[in-house]
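Input chain follows. Return structure tokens only.
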Amino acid sequence: MKREDMEETVLDMAKKLRAYADAVHGPTHARITAVETPLQKLEEKIDENPKNLREKIREDLLQISAVQIRGSGTQRRRSPGRERGYTPCAELWFFLRDCGENMNRWDGKCTVALAQRVHELKEAKTQRGSSTKKEAAPVAHSRTARYDDDDMSNPLKEPLRHMLKERRITVIVTRKAITRDERFSQGRDFLQSSSN
């Protein structure tokens, strides 16, 4: 074989390039014509009836947007947990603790069991019309560390109970509009009066 037989000529290269161009541009031209025909129809509608133009455009846009929504609808956003009725385990835990439940009993229980007990307590409150508060059993501090020791704020509607590390006593803090410095001084005064 000669070297000349193995090499491609310019004519062969031109034929391959034309075939490639036809293969690439064929589907593209088909798409362009598919878009051109609805645009031509829309132009005809504009010329024929300018009054109904806005209505037709709205309908066409709604159809286009509906197709786009269906196409991208595979990733649907979920609503937040609160909208689905989900209550975090921690909120159930603190509600039970504030109602005076023995928290050692609820240690390691699933969220469903906690939610059921909260539901029972709420039903009992509405039936009896009285509070179901009992004396709370002491619980390890790591389980109840919802707030910092210095944080005396009360985001809940009911009084917040803080467990003190040194004394392991429950302090009921009522909701008041006082400054942070006053909170600390009141806490110190309480500790001094209880130690005397």
